[in-house]
Design brief:
By secondary structure, the chain is mainly beta. It has no helices and eleven strands. The protein is globular. The chain starts with a strand and ends with a strand.
Length: 124
């Protein structure tokens, strides 16, 4: 099991940027696949991005592709989500997640542990 703590959420105007961070506990962070999901009120949890243990492979949800970038620093046990050109429809609680299985997935059932989430609100 890994403990995940997100930070960096907040209120931003449309067109602005935010950088989310997720600090993970555990000595084997470098072996985990890491991901970000989001959930808006009344909607299902949505895949945002994922990154392999080596950072060689990434995947993005269609709605954020070209605007968001996922990265990780295994020396700091941290994964990041750089969000640019934010839109009001990006408003949601963003969750960091970890999978102990190699590979990438857009399905939330693939992931094993979840953070508490951080609120991102984009005003128009």
């Amino acid at each position: 099991q890994v403990q995940l703590v997100e930070s960096g959420g907040g209120l931003v105007q449309a067109g602005g940027s935010l950088r989310l961070s997720c600090a993970a506990s555990g000595r084997t962070f470098s072996t985990y696949t890491m991901g970000w999901f989001r959930q808006a009120p009344g909607k299902e949890r949505e895949f945002v991005a994922a990154i392999s243990w080596s950072s060689l492979n990434t995947d993005y949800g269609d709605s954020v592709k070209g605007r968001f970038t996922i990265s990780r620093d295994n020396a700091k046990n941290t994964v990041y989500l750089q969000m640019n050109s934010l839109k009001p429809e990006d408003t949601a609680v963003y969750y960091c997640t970890a999978a102990f299985t190699r590979g990438l997935s857009r399905s939330y059932v693939f992931y094993d542990d979840w953070g508490q989430g951080t609120q991102v609100t984009v005003s128009s």
